[in-house]
Amino acid sequence: MAILFCNNFIKPLPLLLLLSFTDLFASTLSLGIGINYGQIANNLPTPSRVSFLLRSLNVTRVKLYDADPNVLTAFANTNVEFVIGLGNEYLQRMSDPQQAQAWIQQHVQPYHTQTRITCITVGNEVLTGTDTQLKSYLLPAMQGVYRALVNLGLSNEIYVAHPHSAGILVNSFPPSSCSFRQDLSEYIHGMLNFHVQTKSPFLINFYPFFAYKDNPNEVPLDYVLFQPNQGTTDPITNLKYDNMLYAQIDAVYSAIKAMGHTDIPVKVSETGWPSKGDPNEFGATPVNAALYNGNLFQRMQQNQGTPAKPSEPIDVYVFALFNENLKPGPASERNYGLYYPDGTPVYNIGLRGFLPRMDYSAAKKNELSLIDIKR
Question: What stretch or stretches form a coiled coil here (predicted)?
């Protein structure tokens, strides 16, 4: 796969080729790639411009970390479906049926008739935090939100879930030997029962970047980037893995099975690769970010499943749409975006074409950002 980064040789593509590249990229995303649309920044384009960009790319699934009414309004009467978020600060209140119903009536019902909302995430990565009381609030909050959806006649259209950190797992390799942390079993057991009862998926955030960053001399870079490599074999199942993400997904299935369940689907609510990091964040480069996301998009285009679940295509939300300049933490946290806030791509993705950028000169005429592709 050829990926060019030489800005001195940027030339516009012919219009016909531009359109065909756009179509190829759009068809890839429409097969199942979702996009995390984070907004911890003070320089992002307006939601209406973002709506045009994503629809131009045929992105039909977006995940928010809140229930921003400006975003939900901007995507009204489109075919884009949304995951919306209810923050950790709401958990204690959501066990109260009246408060849960009031939240949905305020943040969901006014928009749901025109903007399709398919999931409410209740909290984020709570079980790997240090707040024991917050952990105890999690399941009752999920149950409270679900009961409110039932009462309002929305439970068949909107499911309830919680995005977990990979830190809930132990013995992640081989995948067939994976289990959940023993100290979290009381919480996870109840949540798994909830997923069975409500027919909802188990969500988890996976970042192979972290594994490479922490052990660059032991974790093969090609293995985490979906590049050709020798792979690894699970000695118990004899299943071969040529990338870490698929092994991590199957590890979750094994952990769920170890708790007595085989009918809960696993979805990756976040995955991605930063294009920049601090000096000790090994591997955080535009080249590696382009390889990770570009190769992942190609896998999705092939409608692949994991070795343990070959007939079930993986369901992934890529993190993230934009670089977010106000995110705390190491430099990588502010550099996961596919786009800069001005609408230009952070890097080119080699899907036989390139990720388009927004042309703001055209936007001045009609309030919409047009797509242009360059190499």
Answer: none
